[in-house]
Write a structure and sequence with these properties.
The protein is an alpha/beta fold. It has one domain: 3-Layer(aba) Sandwich (Rossmann fold), CATH 3.40.50.880. It has 8 helices and 11 strands. Strand 4 and strand 5 form a beta hairpin. Helix 7 packs parallel to helix 8. The chain is globular. 48% of the residues are buried. InterPro entries: Class_I_gatase-like. It is found in: Mitochondrion. Its main location: mitochondrion. Keywords: Mitochondrion, Transit peptide. This is DJ-1/PfpI domain-containing protein.
Length: 226
């Protein structure tokens, strides 16, 4: 599986949460470790507070590129929950943006509708974090444990899980798997804020409420049984 094969490989995919119990899917820890691997990256907009966290998406893409993977980016063709003025940290009144169109900024236009993503065409799928995962790919930001997950996101997670292919989840994205795949073991880091070091530690409790199993981990690659 991707998780097992990446263990000990340098550099690490910081903050990446990976489900364990999946087959190798042909990944190797050698020079050009992921050479030829077809990896789908699912975006949720452009901007930490209303879409994909750009730093996380960039880090993922850099590491996949260095390891020789072939990457295709996807996003749902839907409206964002709302638009944030990131210079003020407040909603921009009267604005509406499309998740696919905004995600295309990160993808430099090379992006496809999430409806076209299939497990048979890829060896792994990765979801970067950012509030878009909790606002656009799901309603977690509003509904917590009672949230709903976008239908295409749910389909993709279930299809990759059924196919035994790796699923990578960054930052807040593990809540998607916790909701869709009951009993899945994931991490969002620590379960206590520790003086602000882990500002969203409360998410761990929500993951448990969703039916998932949470593991306390540091910021590094982590591997769990799905």
């Amino acid at each position: 599986m991707l998780a097992a094969r990446l263990a000990g490989c340098r550099p690490p995919l910081s903050s990446l949460r990976v489900l364990r119990g999946l087959p190798a899917a042909g990944f190797h820890c050698s020079a050009q470790r992921l050479r030829g691997a077809r990896v789908a990256v699912v975006l949720s907009g452009c901007g930490v507070y209303d879409g994909t966290e750009i730093h996380e998406a960039s880090a993922i893409l850099v590491h996949l590129s260095r390891e020789g993977a072939s990457v295709q980016m996807y996003a749902p063709d839907i409206s964002q929950m709302h638009v944030i003025d990131h210079s003020k940290g407040q909603p921009a009144e009267g604005e509406s943006r499309n998740v696919l169109a905004e995600s295309a900024r990160i993808a430099r236009g090379k992006i496809a509708d999430l409806a076209k993503l299939t497990a048979k065409d890829h060896d792994a799928v990765i979801f970067p974090g950012g509030f878009g995962a909790a606002k656009n790919l799901s309603t977690f930001a509003v509904d917590g444990k009672d949230c709903k997950v976008n239908g295409e996101v749910e389909r993709v997670l279930k299809d990759f899980n059924k196919a035994g292919k790796p699923i990578g989840l960054c930052c807040i994205s593990p809540v998607l798997a916790a909701k869709v795949l009951p009993g899945t073991e994931v991490t969002v880091g620590h379960e206590e804020e520790e003086g602000g070091k882990w500002p969203y530690a409360g998410t761990a409790g929500a993951i448990k409420a969703l039916g998932g199993k949470h593991h306390i981990k540091e910021v590094t690659i982590s591997f769990f049984a799905g």
